[in-house]
Amino acid sequence: MSFSSPGMFVLLLAIPVVVAWYVSAQRRRAARAQVLAGEGLVATSASAAPKRRARRHVPFALFLVALTLLVVALARPSTTVKTPQQRGTVMIALDVSNSMRATDVKPSRIEVAKAAAKAFVGQQARPIRIGVVAFGDGAVVVQAPTTDHTAVDSAIDHVSVGGGTAIGQALLTSLDAIAGKPITVDPATIHNDDAAINVGYYGGTVIVAFTDGENTNGIDPALVANVASAAGVRVHTIGVGTEAGTTFQYQGFTIATALDSAELKQLASETDGTYHPSTDPGGVSAITRTIRLHFTLVSQHTEVTALFCALAVAVLVLASLASLRWLGRLV
Question: Which segments in the chain show pLDDT lower than 50?
Answer without folding.
Answer: 193-195
